[in-house]
Amino acid sequence: MTMNAPSGESQAVGVNPYSPTAVARVSEVGQSLPTVSTRAVEEAFRYLDAFLAQAVHLERVGLSGRLLTVVGEYGTGKSHLAAALLYRARRSGDSAVRTLYVEAPQFGSLVDLYKRFVGRLDREDIVDLLRDYYSEVVADGLSHVPHAQQIAEDLRRHVIEPQAVVDDLGLPESVLLPQLQDRLIEATGDDDLGTAMTLLLDERTAVQAWDWLIGNRSDGFVTEHGLSKYIDSSAAAMSAIIALLNLHGRSGRRLVVVLDELDRVLDPADPRDVGVIGQFRDLLTAVEESGTFLIITGLVEITPQLQGDVLQRMGYAVRMTPLTAQEARELIEQSHLAARGDSDIAPFLDDAVQYLVDMTHGVPRQFIKLCHHLYRRAELESTVIGIELVQLVARDHFDFATIDDVRREVMLTLEREAIGFERRRQLDVDGRSLLDLVVLNEGGEPSCVILLSEGIMRESDVERVARRAAAARAESVDVEIILVVVGYLAPDVASNVRNVVLAEPIEYERRTFASAVVARIDHVLQRDRLSETDPVRLMVARVDRLVRQQAGAYTMIDRLEQQVRDMRRSTNQRLREISVDVAGLLTGTVSVDRAVSAPTQPGPMDEMGEIDELFETAIEAAVRLGDGLPDAFTQAFRAAPGLSTAIRSAQERIHGWTADPDIFSLLGTAVFLQSLIESFRQAVVEWRMRRVSVDRTDAASSSTDLERLDVLCLTYEAIVDYASLQHLKRLAESMALPPEAATATGPHPMHLDDIREVFGGLGARVRAAARRTIGDM
Q1: Which of 29, 168, 450, 693 has the most neighbouring CB atoms within 10 Å?
Q2: Which of 649-653's residues contact partners 24+ apart within 8 Å by CB, and which partners?
């Protein structure tokens, strides 16, 4: 159904239905979530419903557990589906069902996962479970006592407390507690766990027992009660998780458990995780035997790494897929119904929904984040959301490129590759450029024409491309046309576009564009070389291009060195000024007012707030990549006999780094990024200072300033391309602080997509923010 909202009006009212982060939160599992009925969702719901129905009709203790694996890339809705499954299980009406959500710690271990697992269960929940076992023991002891049959029955139905019965009837705890211990050891399959859980019911030892169960060390407790280990290894942690599953299953309780992002702590390809496959196999066996419904989510890479019987036991798997246009519309309807009470898609227009799906490639996280910003904009401006607004908001919030951005990127790329070109300023009837760049071959003749186009969605857009192609061929009959589409290329007109330009268009994508356009141009130039008959002329042209490439590289290096020198010079000057002020304050020759007086007029840095914040975030991220290094060194130098395993762990981490020569290269990349960002920041500060010192009404000066700003940002982007951002994920994993330290001291380590966004997109964000400051001036 097409929404027919009047132009300029919006039905967007009240709270924004869309999350600004589009990340599923643990707190949401108790709420109804807008969940689109995709194929993956329907399959997962059917699988859970079959398990819950079986639990109702079969004797609970004999129920077989099930495993559901949810795989997909980042942002495809894995955690959202897991939360929806837990909500569905809670509303099943089965009082024996208990739901549990555990997110694997970033760069953690199975021990860290276990600590979160037992923390989610909570001490009182486990004590309540153990009381059920104690009730069975006490009931068995009363089974042959005259006139106690009703009490025994009440104990088995868990309507009276076992400890109250023991106290009222004076039953011997010295006999009953050892029987409970034996039963718990049998249920858990572990002497230490069975003993510790028995001690958890004793008020005198409950605190120490819980401390041991959550993975802390207490030598006195272990020695006093004859325990043989701590829960401080992967094997012990997995055994404890399995024991808790078995305890629930054998008591007739049903756990529906989510282990979210399990691939964070379970990497079969990691040589450091010795025995991980066997431990995972044991978990799958326990799931089946305990009657647990286990939901595992993770990236698609983990499944192919599992082999043999482990892969066969992986249960049912669903794969998250991108949203279709119809599913996206359903998501909008559900979100509006939950937030506003109606399912109208207003203020979204139908064609905007389709455009959003194509722009975000149907990835739910990106789709929802963009919907958040669009809905807010529509509400503030009382307008509807069409394609034009989507394009505008996307550029503001997602660093989507403009035609000018891409044109400058092409020019910088051609200069870097020493490929000759000319810029043409011929305009079309609508005032827009007919031709963008003409690439010259080694003989100085037109070889191909680069046309930059915004999104092509209608036949009128194709007609404009045809006019531009005709103008390009007027340059030369044999010229090849390279069409770059900066936006959405509609599938129903794509074939017509190909027929017009006689080649496959290049759809702009920031990370791959430079290599794609250079490859296409090189192909054209190679064709021209093959047609060249003079070998001497051909050799001269090739040498000339090599010389220009080398000169371009030296120019870029000189520019970076100059920026570093300028930053050092201005920093030293500022430090000297501060030293003079401090000395004056100490001697009384300078007043406090003079030393700290505020400028009467806003300086260049007063308007740099947003830009400065961008640089601070990027520098902080570069520093965070190596956060684990000083921490590990500090711990290692505290090494002494008898200290905690944290010291040994630090030593082992350092040994692992020194055994891997790649780590040093990756650390160099992090230092490279930090220095690059600081130099970029200083260059922008100096650009800003020059900007405020010129006549702001001078159009020529403004144009020159914008061009210089673009050069600065594109220089950063060209240099950062040399850094291997993909490999920085491995550095973050190796250098990450332990989960407890990371939680206490600062932010968690970054995801790979965070690394790409912070460093790869910095130039575009700084350019946009700086342009806004020019507008403010």
Answers
A1: 450
A2: 649/738, 653/628, 653/734
